[in-house]
Amino acid sequence: MVFLRILVVEDEFSLADIIASKLRKEKYNVDISLDGISGLDNALSGVYDLIILDIMLPKINGIEILKEIKNNNIDTKVIMLTAKSSLDDKLIGFENGANDYITKPFHMEELIARVNVQLRNNEKNINKDILKF
How far are the Cα atoms of 19, 102, 104 from residue 83, in angstroms, in the given order? Predict the structure, then answer.
């Protein structure tokens, strides 16, 4: 069984912890970064299958992190999870490479469903690399 890796970049620890706990129950490996600098460092490692990324972070904002991920050709799916809910904010997220955009407040079941949809293609690609005799 393949365990997919998720990075949650969220400065509100209690929210990040709840999201991580729910995702772990879904059998994902989850790491948390609580500020933009550690979030960027972890994102640039390229080891994550998906990043859940807040925009309003201390030190470096989520849009800058998203730009760096794409500038470094890291092929990780990114779901923006933020209180910034205007159409312009959403368009900026998508224009900079976000795969999905969820506004706070949100339903945890919806977040889990969107994570599963984004990662479904990763599982198919992983299974292509397995040789069967």
Answer: 16, 9, 5
| C-alpha radius of gyration, the chain, whole number | 14
pTM (2 decimals)?
0.89
CA distances from 111 to 57, 65, 67, 75 (A): 20, 20, 22, 20
In the chain, where do the E strands start and end? Answer: 5-9, 29-33, 50-53, 77-82, 100-103
Question: Could you report the per-residue pLDDT of 67-77, keeping only the tens digit for each?
Answer: 999 999 999 99
Per-residue tokens: 93: 């997220």
* Burial (CB count <10 Å: 0-12, 13-18, 19+), residue 43: buried
Name 2's Cβ contacts closer than 8 Å, sequence gap at least 6.
123, 126
pLDDT (tens digit per residue) in 54-65: 999 999 999 999
Contact 97, 71 (CB under 8 A): no
SS3 34: coil
